[in-house]
Task: structure prediction
Amino acid sequence: MTTAADVAADPLLSRLAAIVGERHVLREAGDMAAYLAEPRDLFHGHARCVVRPGSTAEVAAILKLCAETDTPVVPQGGNTGLVGGQIPGQGSRKDEVVLSLKRMDKVRETDPASMTMTVEAGLTLLAVQEAAEKAGALFPLSLAAEGSCTIGGNLSTNAGGTAVLAYGNARDLVTGLEVVLADGRVLSNLSKLKKDNTGYDLKHLFMGSEGTLGIITAAVVKLYPRPREMHTAFIGLNSPHEALKLLNLAQSLAGADVKTFELMSRFCLDIVVTHGEGTRDPLAGKHNWYVLLELGSQIEGGEAALMNVLEQGMEQGLIEDAVVAASLDQRADFWKLRELLSELQKFEGGSIKHDVSVPVAKVPQFLDEAGPAVEAFMPGARLVPFGHLGDGNIHYNVTQPVGMDKQAYLDRWYEMNAVVHGIVTRLNGSISAEHGIGTLKRDLLPTVKDPVALEVMRTLKQALDPKGILNPGKVL
Ligand code: ZN
Result:
């Protein structure tokens, strides 16, 4: 809510209230708090106000007003981003307006025959998944924050997650977008077409641009058949070299039915079973590395396919031990071991994070080289490597040495980054596989991005947002 005194102090507030209604312009510190800091509180900022439009027309009117008054705008979905892209007050501008899309939460249309669904940006990912399920189909994007992140945020950051191996990144799951541009024009292309070669594919400009080129208000997403059977195994093995060979074996035997191939080290599992309520190690002995493997099939016989992969993996000496989920509950227990990991790391102290990717074949080499390099940089630092081996994407987190002061450890963040990113760059990898650039990696980007690519990015930014009002200080 805004008060008369607020409005007198800042005429923009009454103009925003005229667009969205007074109760959707938040000005009080208590009302705004949830929009100004992300859950880990690594990033927090301040804003002139939070505005909560309920329609595309309202978003367009807000941007027209902001363009006219040179007011910077920070778009925000579920506020779960990990690189600070959704948090205001990170750049030089002190007068930003947070534009929350959470009121735009409708499924506009479900079209099972075209296998598409038209959804608004503020729907949570979980709500999109549930709407697809109601239509008898699957929307495969899946990640730990799915209960609170929004599809608009997923698309503007090109989110990844655990289903990329089988279905691709967020940008691969879209046929059309509706975007409000910096000057308030609406680029409406809610197309369901699989094939459309009428010039530049503009939607891909906005997906992954983190709200710096336009604000995604709706999307046509692709639906897929729901696998009839899912079969899940938790596997112990010696090293990432065996894990990579097992991935190749599984794909040669089961093809597109390989839906999940998640890797984690022994220390990752230790963290989860030590701090995670109701968790336990499903295997009798200890192993250096673990894989969560899942096959999903449309036809019966999935279990035999999984057993075949495991048997051949054993015969080839790739697998030390494995257990197959005998029930849905057990499957959920296996998934918990992977999904709880991100939030449970905090119990071991400070964590310096890297969201990196290398060519899939080079993941073992990356892990072989990064471990000793980190140990040389900071003896006693504890490696927490896990992630999506099938995508070449490892969350290479490093937990502080036991007994070290947490802040003193976190103060070495960028030095540690330089050690890990140096290896990633040498292996032709990326320093941001699925979390984006935001604020966290903005200063790193020019050190790794091709200079011509950066020039083209700046040219596009200038063309689409000449006043620089869209999410300033992020990405570029
Ligand atoms: Zn991930």
User: Anything to note?
Assistant: The first helix runs from residue 4 to 9. The chain is about 35% helix and 20% strand.
